[in-house]
Design brief:
379 residues, alpha/beta, L-arginine/glycine Amidinotransferase, Chain A, three-stranded mixed sheet, 9 helices, 22% strand, globular
Length: 379
Amino acid sequence: MLLSSFDEWSPLKEVVVGSAANYTSHERELSFELFFHEHLKSEWYYPRLSPARDGGGRRPGRSPIKQRYVDELNEDLEGIAKTLESLSVKVLRPIDLHESTTEVSTPAWSAAVVPPLNVRDIALVLGDEIIETSPMIRSRYFETQFLTGIFADYFRRGARWTVMPRPLMTDASFDPSYADNAAGGPMEPVAGREPSPYDVGFEIMFDGAQCLRLGRDVVANISTANHAMAVDWLERHLEGRFRIHRVHRLSDSHIDSMVLALRPGTLLVRSEEVAEYLPEPLRRWDRIVAPAPGEDAFPRYEDDDLVLTTPFIDLNVLSVDPETVLVNEACPDLARTLERHGFTAVPVRHRHRRLFGGGFHCFTLDTVREGGPEDYLYG
């Protein structure tokens, strides 16, 4: 089919489901700490970008991931793909990260590479256009390369294919104000950043999961100067095709564990307070408040396991159509809440979402939906 995706809820026809193959570690460096600062439970520290390796060849600052978690994640990803296929959705998969590829390097830094798991972050599909977004974590700098085959196929069939400006991502590129001012922020202030010959000041950095797509309208969350520059770019690039609505500090970055649009006129939100941040027309939509997650909804982890997401990660559902929603099977209260509002909740297993930074919405990138550029806010 031709690339066409304007919203979060219309009947889903084609979708990319991410891959976790050969996921081995997290690189604990500046960009990682800034991005996950609100959720890391272990002690803060700030290793330099390319510290000397120890005698065993392991980079200090890399936090290994236990293989059993990766194995179970891969099982769950296969389950997500099979569930979508059973609902008549065509599932596309990125190229797997090869075990021999362990590091990504630029002239300014190097970091561990990660597989294309949270594919919602690295691209924004707006109508007939793929926009590869500018990464906020160094390890993800070339992650869209794993989706090149998929994107090229849509391009051959007529899709637009655009890449946001790529940042140099030196220490000076990051606006640390949100993390520095947040409660429980870094123990070591980012003021100790090291200079680089490649410093150019704050740069464009932005993830697709910072956007809520509503036909011809796009809600974009801004928490740093990096995000603001990216939204400036989006506004100029999309002028005349889409309307951009800025919301400020609804979250630190991604908003799909704060608010999701399930169908025209209905939002799933973490709390009623979310409405205060939204554009005025969206405040008139009905709001379903997700139930608080229970302690028993998550596996127990060891002290050296990095927890990367809020307990509200399971609000991160995926709509297959305006009546059907994929919901984590560990969240029966959320499923019942959605069913009371007329939705069919399809339970799917997803165990380690807090360790890998994403739910069903994060792990997927919808490329074909039946909806078009309708005006849901002012029409």
